[in-house]
Amino acid sequence: MENTVDIEALNQQIYAESDFVDRIKAEAGKVIIGQHHMIERLLLGLLAKGHVLLEGLPGLAKTLAIKTLSQCIDAEFSRIQFTPDLLPADIVGTLIYNPNKSEFTVRKGPIFANFVLADEINRAPAKVQSALLEAMQERQVTIGNDTFSLEEPFLVLATQNPIEQEGTYPLPEAQTDRFMLKVQITYPEKEEERKIIRLIMGGDKLPKVKPVVSPKEIIRARELVRSIYMDEKIETYITDIVFATRFPKDYGMPELEPLINYGGSPRASINLALAAKAYAFLQRRGYVIPEDIREICHDILRHRIGLTYEAEAENISQEDVINKILDTVEVP
Q1: Beta bridge partners of 160
Q2: CB distance 65 to 29 below 8 Å
Q3: Which of 1, 94, 179, 286 could serve as 89's disulfide partner, Cβ 3.0–4.6 Å?
Q4: CA distances from residue 87 to 84, 166, 198, 264 in whole angstroms, order as listed
Q5: In what order do the strands lie in the sheet with 77-81?
Q6: CA distances for 228 relative to 3, 180, 248, 296, angstroms
């Protein structure tokens, strides 16, 4: 009974302190028509302290959505356009010689912001990608002999274009694993596209987005997200899903065995749990339910399952494998 009272109190607290989510969605909605899935996933990354990789065709408002989110939060935003001639120093910063003082001074790079948009991350060479990914992982940057911590909230939102192969450097699997979520952006609905045309044709400038939440509120919300209740049965459900990506035969799916090269690592389980708590927070709820796991599962696992040549030959995607696992693994 005591547990029930705790959950009830937590529920009320989460409901009271998650009202800023609606404010962000309303403010972002002034500029972003539709794309609710993308906005929600960006908020998930923000609340669960995880970086987000957005994959979609050009012109689907990926950059605009990220910029708009940073404007809704009174935070510093920087954009890095990734190109083949970019150097690691262009991201993290470098030492500049000052002849007047006869010494080197640090010039910080664009990574020193709360929101960093890495536009077309697959256009830069591996050296640059790894410099960014190191900062993402360590949340600190070393320039010369000095180490600088990155200010919280710190969130890297990267975009990549799935159709171009020429002049791109695909992210290695170990590096895409650093992103909590890999979100696939799709075309808007017909009615949404009509509204987009109307908004753009209505004037030279898009509506002004105002800050509706402070970085302190985001940091407080992150602490609350971790306190959301997760039952042992839900934990078992998460581990069952991830283990089914590694050993499908043990879960009654022997047909997946020749299709999966490698499954999700423990990082997949951790991120599933964290993102499920953040999703419950977005629903203004103090506890996690199985539907939360199912809702976010594709975004957490699609870049963590390696397929064999056989799967590619049969035109089977990560989405198909995840769907099969979700349909087969027992729901608590």
Answers
A1: 55
A2: no
A3: 94
A4: 9, 20, 40, 31
A5: 77-81, 115-119, 155-160, 52-55, 181-184
A6: 13, 19, 30, 16
Q: What tens digit of pLDDT does each residue of 237-285 get? A: 999 999 999 998 988 889 989 998 888 888 999 999 999 999 999 998 8
Question: What spatial distance separates the first Cα and last Cα of the chain, rounded to whole Å?
Answer: 21
Q: Give φ, ψ of 148 to 5 degrees.
A: -120, 130
Provide the domain count of the chain: 2
242 and 277 both lie in a single domain: yes
- Name which of 167, 186, 157, 16 is nearest 79 in CA terms: 157
In a domain, 126, yes or no: yes
Residues in the chain: 332
Contact by Cβ (8 Å): 139, 133: no
Same domain, 15 and 132: yes
Residue type, 26: A
Instruction: Enter the pTM of the model.
Output: 0.86
Is there a single domain that holds both residue 295 and residue 173?
Answer: no
Beta strands in the chain (DSSP E): 52-55, 77-81, 93-98, 103-108, 115-119, 140-143, 146-149, 155-160, 181-184, 260-262, 306-307
